[in-house]
Every structure is written in structure tokens, then in C-alpha cells.
Amino acid sequence: MRAIVIGAGIAGLAAALRLYQAGWETLVVERAPERRGGGYGVTFGGIGYDGAERMGVLPELKRRAFVTRELVYRKTNGQRRFALSGETIVATMGRKAFNILRGDIEAVLYEAVAEHTTIRFGTTITAVQQDANAVHVTLSDGTTERADLLIGADGLHSATRALVFGPEEAYRLDMGHSVAVYMMKERPEGLPAETTGSISAGGRTFAMMSVGDGRTAAFFGYRTDRGRAGASLDDLREIYGDMGWLVPQALDGLMTADSVYFDTISQMVVDRWSKGRVVLLGDAAWCVTLFAGYGSSLAVGGADRLGAALEHHGDDVLAALAAWEAELRPEADKKQRLGRRVKGVYAPRNPLLLELTQLPLRLASWGPVRRMVERKFQLAG
After folding, report:
1. Would you say residue 149 has pLDDT above 50?
2. C-alpha span between 110 and 35 (Å, rounded)
């Protein structure tokens, strides 16, 4: 059995690895000229943790995890407001979860699968045709590939989804926010190692994260009514111009960054994740958004369960896809609902609402509450 995977991000690489382990041949097609790195830090756990363990990559993922010793919330001028200790952060994450850079998840998956699959960089999908027995994929390098399954793991703005399921506008739910993330050249002196600093005010959030091995990520997230077409990196200096602390350095660093992830925050609400022998995976199918904070875990866990369904159903690919979606969709739908709820309180413009949303964090930093949270997650684990 053979699969073509569009996209060499977390979802695509996880799918290629899991299908290889299930005995499939895979071809991965990636539009970028080379493998990308960086991204922002995520909490990896849940079904992703279990899937990574079954695929044999969990030890290496945990080795690359980074520890946050302190999370400091600051005023716009940089003054310290309150902080969460590393113990509190660990308590709220639970036992089977850890923090890791998105790019490090990709790196681990790439290293695990690269010798077992062909990866064509700098290539895109241009056409799809399918019949009862196979799917035929035309690529931008002029070749046509035949396979038993096509996996569209090409992200929020999926070309696979546009070709097979219809235009993005039919599925995109804009969340009224934009985000910009990049890796800084070096860690500023004002950010101690293994710490994160954050400022929220007036519908804007800024964070600078020490993410291990001397690396530092800068994050901008803000409310906007302009939509995707109206968002611009040039707006950031005006939007964040009144913030102090390390914000000016982060804004200057944007000008010389090797790469910047910049996009509006949107969900993909797709009523059915497969059509015939074409299936969507990861952000192409659901995109729970950073508000839910589960995208990487869901991508890896979804790929693991897809491989298991294909193993169970053998040559009956359509039955496998139907069973996989029936099992996974409740989890994805739950996280999307969470993302929509959190959207209303993420970086609120109202100062009073900001104080109310951060009150649980203040309480969690208090010893008795922290110990109660720790006990809760120990019991849950």
C-alpha cells in the first residue's frame, strides 16, 4: 500500500512515520525548499503523548523538552506584576505533558522517518483525480504519482483541501486575532535562562520565551478586525510601540529574523475529513488554534490513530478513514469549542476583564492552591 503525504510539518511527518510502521510506502511532498525549524513553544501531551510513545519517538521528544523555571507577568512598562514558579507550571500541565518547541517536534519526527520515506522539497500539489482503486496526484515538478491514499497535511491554508474539498473560505472561521512568532538571534540580558516573560494589555499579548539550548522565541498576539488580507507585520511597531521591557528589542529583531511565522488565527470547520481516498490531517482538517493549545498533540495523536485504523482495516481504506474520523472527531470538536471560548478572554481590551482572567493564575501561584492543583493532577494521572 502506498500513500502520498502533502506537507512535511508535524502532522505530515507523523503520518509518514506511522504509516511506515504499518507497512506502507510513503512519499512526502513539501512546498518549502528545506525543512523548517523554530516556531513557538507548546505543551505536548494527551493523545499526542500516547501516540509518540507508541511510535517510539517519545524519549527523544522528552530529551528536547525545555523547562520554564519562572513565568513572569509584567506591566506594559516592564514592571513585574506577579509570577508563576516552575512547580506551579508543572502542576497545571499534569504528569504526561511537557513543553517543547514546535520545530523540535518536527526535527524528531524527521530524523525518525527520513531514511524510510522520500521527501520532495520545493514541490506543491497541483491536481488530484481519483477512482475506486487509486488516487492520482499531479505535482508542480511535472510528475504524476499514483497511490492508495492521499493525506493532506499541508496546514491551515491547505492546497489539498482547496483542490478536493473546496475553497478555504467555505471552512475558515476567523478568530479576530493575528500572531507573529520568530526565533531571536540571541537571548537578551533582561530575560534569564529558563524563564518566560509576558505582557498583556489593550487587546495585545507579548511573550519572550527561553526555550532551551540558548534559544529564545518572541511572540506577538493581538486582536484585529482586519482579517487575513489586512494583517501586516508593519503594523506591529505601531501596535506594540508603547510597550517597554524587551518589546523594542523584539520589534527590532523582526527586521533581521531568518524567518517569521505570521498569520491570522483561524479554525477550519470541515464537516467531513475525507472524500474517497483523500483525507485531511492536522490543521488542514481542524486547526484548533493556539487558544486551545493542543494542535501539535492532536496532529501526532491523529496520525497515530490513522495508522492504527489503516492497519485494522487492511485494504479497505474507505472503512479505515470512516472509523478513524468517528473516533477522533469528538476530541477535535471539543478542542475547537474550547478555542472559541478562550478567544473571548485572550488578550482582552478591557483592563478589568484582564484582571479577572488572570486571577486564577495569581491564585495558582499561592502555595496552598498550588498544592491542591498538584494533587488534582496526580489523581488524574
Report:
1. yes
2. 9
